[in-house]
Amino acid sequence: MVKKHTFPVSSPQHILLIQTAFLGDLILTLPLINALLDVWPSATLSVLARPFATDLLQNYPRVQVLPDDKTALFWKTEWFAKLKDQSPQMAIIPHRSTRSTLVALASGAQVRVGFHNAGLPFLLSHRALWSKQKHEAERMLSLLHTLNVTTPPLSELSELRYLPFDENEMKKRWEQFSKPVLIFPSTQWASKNWTAEGYAEVTKNLASTGYQVLLLGTAEQYPLCHSIIEKAGSPSEVYNLAGETRINDLLYLIKSASLVISGDSAPAHIAGLFNKPQVVIYGPTSPLLGFTPLGRRHRIVQTELSCRPCNPHGPSACPLTHHRCMKEIAPDAVLEACYHFIRGIHV
Fold it and tell me: Is the pTM here over 0.70, yes or no?
């Protein structure tokens, strides 16, 4: 039963958005953020998210990031004290955890909109159906539709409207690279990683066409990127930049790339945001779960196995121990997908 709210939905002055999941999830939340700012042009928006959101959203007008590292009881944090002072009238909760529902309740927001399968859904004033048939960004927009609010189409909302960097400064910083191919060989979950041997074969082939190839990731992923380059024969125009990029660097390099190759992870969603050509390698997860890139210029490489998808986010290890979903993807399959965007590849 939908409860009545005590203020006109057309005029909230302060809105709370809760999305404390990973970077890729925040990227897929951008259409919802853009919609909130479009629908309520006089409202301010507080975004409760992990600290990296501060960099991503720093130039968004009327947006304040409340950085949450999730290491403390939320009612004892500095951000929660600020939130209580702001007295939001509405909380939009795409993150389905029990903690997120409790934060929304404790914020004092009388209108609390989340999904029907969220933690403690009876504490929500409005509940939207979480549908497997929809893209994740469309699912999040449905939270507003539950309020009988009309939003612009997803195609008009799928953008990073305010870049968090100066393009001229970034161009100088990365001037040695001209329209490179970017490879992200590792993800948050080990089971979502394709083989190092496969990435090495693709790297070797791409480098032979004359493209600069950049391998990127965190500092912890530097050894993996180094081993891939060694397996590829250490071509001269292949670079290991793992650990050398902040979010702003990552955004700029993806925006200026000729092609992006990755697993089901944040770089794929960033590339989709910029509608860049990309190849996405799926293993334990599946495009059918609704987490495909937002852009139209992507090719998906995957195997057809009865055991996949085994997890919506990717387990830490293959539950059946064989990891066939990744091991059975041949380099030629990935190169063939690349060939749709780059000519001269030998398949």
Answer: yes
